[in-house]
TrEMBL record, chain A:
<feature type="transmembrane region" description="Helical">
    <location>
        <begin position="115"/>
        <end position="137"/>
    </location>
</feature>
<feature type="transmembrane region" description="Helical">
    <location>
        <begin position="6"/>
        <end position="25"/>
    </location>
</feature>
<keyword id="KW-0472">Membrane</keyword>
<feature type="transmembrane region" description="Helical">
    <location>
        <begin position="215"/>
        <end position="232"/>
    </location>
</feature>
<protein>
    <recommendedName>
        <fullName>Gamma-secretase subunit APH1-like</fullName>
    </recommendedName>
</protein>
<feature type="transmembrane region" description="Helical">
    <location>
        <begin position="191"/>
        <end position="209"/>
    </location>
</feature>
<feature type="transmembrane region" description="Helical">
    <location>
        <begin position="30"/>
        <end position="53"/>
    </location>
</feature>
<dbReference type="InterPro" id="IPR009294">
    <property type="entry name" value="Aph-1"/>
</dbReference>
<dbReference type="Pfam" id="PF06105">
    <property type="entry name" value="Aph-1"/>
</dbReference>
From TrEMBL, chain B:
<dbReference type="GO" id="GO:0000139">
    <property type="term" value="C:Golgi membrane"/>
</dbReference>
<keyword id="KW-0333">Golgi apparatus</keyword>
<keyword id="KW-0472">Membrane</keyword>
<keyword id="KW-0378">Hydrolase</keyword>
<feature type="transmembrane region" description="Helical">
    <location>
        <begin position="404"/>
        <end position="423"/>
    </location>
</feature>
<feature type="transmembrane region" description="Helical">
    <location>
        <begin position="117"/>
        <end position="138"/>
    </location>
</feature>
<dbReference type="InterPro" id="IPR042524">
    <property type="entry name" value="Presenilin_C"/>
</dbReference>
<keyword id="KW-0914">Notch signaling pathway</keyword>
<dbReference type="GO" id="GO:0005789">
    <property type="term" value="C:endoplasmic reticulum membrane"/>
</dbReference>
Amino acid sequence: MTVASGVGYVLIALGPAFSLFASVIAKKPFLILTLLSSTLFWLMSLIVLAGAWRAFLPVKSTELWPYSILILTSVGFQEGIRIGFWRLFKKMEDMLNAFADRVSKPRLFLTDKMLLALAGGLGHGLAHAVFFCLSLLTPAFGPATFYVDKCSNIPFFLISAIIALGFVIIHTFSMVIAFNGYTEGKRKDQIFVPFAHLIAAVITLINLVPGGCNVGLPLLCIMAGTTLYYSWQLVWRRLTEHQTTRSSD
Amino acid sequence: MPPPDDPPSTPTRTSIIDSLGVEIVGVMSPVSICMLLVVLILTSLSSSSTTSTSSPPPVTAATLIYVESDSDSPSHKLLGAVLDAAAFVALIAAATFVLVLLYYYNFTSFLKNYLRFSVFFVLFSMGGSIMASLLQHFSIPLDAPTSIILLLNFAILGVLSVFSPAVPILLRQSYMVSVAVIVAVWFARLPEWTTWVLLIALALYDLAAVLCPHGPLRILVELASSREEELPALVYEARPTDSSHPVSAPVSSPVASLGSVEMQPVSETSNSNSNSVDEEERSPLVSSPPVVRENLSNFNHEQTRESHNSNHAVVEMETGESETLPLVEREGHRSSSNSDSEFEMFDSTRGIRLGLGDFVFYSVLVGRAAMYDLMTVYACYLAIISGLGCTLILLSVFRHALPALPISITLGVIFYFLTRLLMEPFVVGASTNLVMF
């Protein structure tokens, strides 16, 4: 329904992402590069998954189990890739530290590492929002709107925008949690991330049931809020610990 | 107990990631803006011109041999597209050789005026037709005399800004991007198969022309560097905001369409920064304007940002081109002197330069992807940007002219077909059922 609603849907899905970008990431060009490469990474993982599943498509939407297998394999693959992403991140950290030593500047601070994790996560979230939500939004700029059978009280675009918003938050902050967890070696953080991702993806399965989106959407938002809260606590703890260790020298 | 460190986590601490990658982002943002504008123009115009798609595509240099029509078989289309692409590349190669000849015999004023004319033509005539279609599509109430006057002003200012060193760099960059947008929108009207085959053929030609020993662009680059002159061309220059470490190697990719070249006037400004002249008397070319030595000072004082910044504004204004940097021999750069015909990318002490042809063909690829679906647009955009990043990294490793088209175009084409064939059924199927991960 017109350009206004199209732009509105885009902002619902990507508003927090844009504000994160403008306030944090746009200031440091290196973070922009990190964001672009992590988006590319996510895109490549999606292509690999799509290639693997190509033979089995199209999946009938009336049954639950093909989609659950799809979700399980996809989430599993992406979480596995996240570990690979973390290894790349470690290598990059080493290279940056070596470069810093060469030009005699200080090494990476804790906040730098967290910013890099945030940029990586935002890249993943942005890729998700773009490929799952934005690419389908083109009709929303036109004169009408669209409803899905299974969820006939909310326009399709609004649902997908809200789901994309939830996933942007989940992807962004779970990357922060994951990197911190792998760095510190804390099992709890490391388990939380795949778990949260899986639960969120399974929640979207509820949308397959007629009328399920009325339950699924709030649950997804709760999940996003949980991830946000968890990462907030983690970062707060880390920063205060770091602060006290520094000032207690 | 060791003394406490600096005050903890004050915002004034600078870290290395603050300034790393400025040049790369400085090149990627105009490329992104150009692609965005092309996609916007194409999508808004294509929705209004559904009736005109039935008219045959314009007869251009790229459709000399075969004009694609919907009723042909795929193999026929492919053959026709290959022939078209071969003819186009041959035309480009011929134009580049003519360019080399003209440059060799020092027909500089001819080249300069031809380039001015071509920029005016692009901005006024091709830009005018795009403006007319946009006005029509959005029903903007602008009458003909006003729009002609505005267009004329726009075009004339563009001609002035492209070749005059006294124009602010932002204006020059904007006009470069507009020229690229206009040419790309025009190119994207080619039929589909022809476009794809043409892009691949140009990427291959680029590779050959720059890297082979007798390729025209390589000859051009070597000629220009042996004369220690600036090769005039339509080139986008990304000025860095601070002096970063000198990475310099010309990266060039071939002239695609216009093949026009211009000699930048070397001694434009002489009144700048006399203070830094004394410090840096190292230029082998004593006759070069003080401006040139200023560049050298910028280059050498990479750590002293203050001095650089203080002079930088002046430098930018005065030495609009910065092409006049023959000095860098001493430093072991053979860079900066030349930018090739239009599609060359290299970085001097001033920043990386990317030829306009690269802009044009990246945008053509993305524009063609936009005609299919937005998902392919994003995938191709990411592919092109990552190809550009790889090329920049290779530039810093190899330090000589490198073609900017091949990696990006290859990645873009691969990602386009992968997305279209593999990813789209998967993602669209999942998301229309509201199952996402």
